[in-house]
Design the sequence.
């Protein structure tokens, strides 16, 4: 019995060796669940493979069209690729679904700041802070705006 359990654990550890392998295994075993594709997208994102991440986020959204985290993550990937207007679209879509999603407000604030829309950026940062008062990034973003950055 011990040998059987050891062998099973050994092979499971091979699958879980990396985040990428883990989430590929998840989507292979549960292809109908959007969360697995979103998390596979995150694994690709953290490895710097933005095009693959975008593909997985889009798959997650085809499966679960109101998945706000996938919209937010897609916005982040677009932002990192310099596709600013597409990032805005993803963040605003997330906020249409869940208006109290603090992370999307914060991310949208960053995009507006880059576009030079400081009033809109401040509004988004303040909303993020109101929704999540313990958010030091939103507080710092407001401080930077106050100091002309």
Sequence:
């Amino acid at each position: 019995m011990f040998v059987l359990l050891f062998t099973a654990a050994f092979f499971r550890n091979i699958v879980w060796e990396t985040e990428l392998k883990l989430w590929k295994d998840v989507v292979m075993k549960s292809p109908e669940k959007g969360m697995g594709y979103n998390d596979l997208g995150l694994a690709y994102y953290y490895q710097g493979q933005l095009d693959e991440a975008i593909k997985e986020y889009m798959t997650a959204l085809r499966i679960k069209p109101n998945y706000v985290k996938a919209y937010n993550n897609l916005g982040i990937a677009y932002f990192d690729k310099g596709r600013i207007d597409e990032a805005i679209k993803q963040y605003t879509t997330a906020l249409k679904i869940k208006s109290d999603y603090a992370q999307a407000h914060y991310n949208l604030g960053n995009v507006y700041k880059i576009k030079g829309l400081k009033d809109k950026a401040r509004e988004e940062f303040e909303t993020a802070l109101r929704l999540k008062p313990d958010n030091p990034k939103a507080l710092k973003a407001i401080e930077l705006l106050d100091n002309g950055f």
Observations:
- The two ends are 63 Å apart (CA to CA).
- DSSP finds nine helices and no strands in the chain.
- Residues 100-149 form one domain.
